């Protein structure tokens, strides 16, 4: 079955760059109909969509983060990356990768999430 | 951005009760509305998409309705495993946005 696994540092210093990777297995997402997404959730709040990438390489970002975020993926869409620059304490959150099924418009598969804390 | 507002923020209920959660969008989103269930330490899990379509395997006690700007999620007879936080999410237009959640707890 489809599995997503996030990985990366759990602690990032203010003003530095947060970098995370998501490994996708058990499915084929390189042939269209799916976006690979990053979503984050701060403690006690609703999830926040960060952005996504399509198999063509097209990306779409949340305007609130667009100036600081880069999402990329390998050509097989089995490795997804997130870079968030100039982080502050407000970027402390659990970061999830998820698949977005374009035809029916929902997030169906999610990783377990990784907690990233921004602190000196 | 489309703002999603859920009510109530929290809800206390007993096993066997029927509960209803409301979600309102700041503009019309047709039926591009999904509902997720989240348990502590876990990722959100899709329950209902397109406002009223239950995902395969989701118990029939969960039902969704609405269109435009007003939506509901109803649970007809609460089971112990249903106590969790529920989120609505609009997929009408990016940025995709979620509600702030409704925490359903045991009375």
Structure description:
The complex is a heterodimer of chains A (120) and B (107). By secondary structure, chain A is mainly β. Chain A contains no helices and eleven strands. Chain A is globular and about 40 Å long. Chain A starts with a strand and ends with a strand. The mean pLDDT of chain A is 94. Chain B has 107 residues and is mostly beta strands. Helices cover 0% and strands 50% of the residues of chain B. Chain B is built from no helices and eleven strands. In chain B, strands 2, 4, 5, 6, 9, 10 and 11 form a seven-stranded mixed sheet that branches. The radius of gyration of chain B is 13 Å and the shape is globular. The N and C termini of chain B lie far apart (36 Å). The model of chain B has no long low-confidence stretch (mean pLDDT 97). At the A-B interface, strand 10 of A face strand 5 and strand 10 of B.
């Amino acid at each position: 079955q489809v599995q997503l696994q996030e990985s990366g540092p759990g602690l990032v210093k203010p003003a530095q760059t947060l970098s995370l990777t998501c490994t996708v297995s058990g499915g084929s997402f390189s042939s269209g109909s799916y976006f690979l997404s990053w979503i984050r959730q701060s403690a006690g709040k609703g999830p926040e969509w960060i952005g996504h990438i399509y198999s063509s390489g097209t990306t779409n970002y949340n305007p609130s983060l667009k100036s600081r975020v880069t999402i990329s993926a390998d050509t097989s869409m089995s490795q997804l990356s997130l870079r968030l620059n100039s982080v502050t304490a407000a970027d402390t959150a659990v970061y999830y990768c998820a698949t977005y099924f374009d035809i029916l418009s929902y997030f169906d598969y999610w990783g377990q999430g990784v907690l990233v804390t921004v602190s000196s | 951005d489309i703002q999603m507002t859920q009510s109530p923020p929290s809800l206390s209920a007993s096993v066997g009760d029927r509960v209803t959660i409301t979600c309102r969008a700041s503009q019309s989103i047709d039926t591009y509305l999904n509902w997720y269930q989240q348990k502590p330490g876990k990722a959100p899990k899709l329950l209902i998409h397109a406002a009223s379509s239950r995902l395969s395997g989701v118990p029939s006690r969960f039902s969704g309705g609405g269109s435009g700007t007003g939506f509901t999620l109803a649970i007809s007879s609460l089971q112990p495993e249903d106590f969790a936080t529920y989120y609505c999410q609009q997929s009408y237009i990016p940025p995709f946005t979620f509600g702030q959640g409704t925490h359903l707890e045991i009375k």
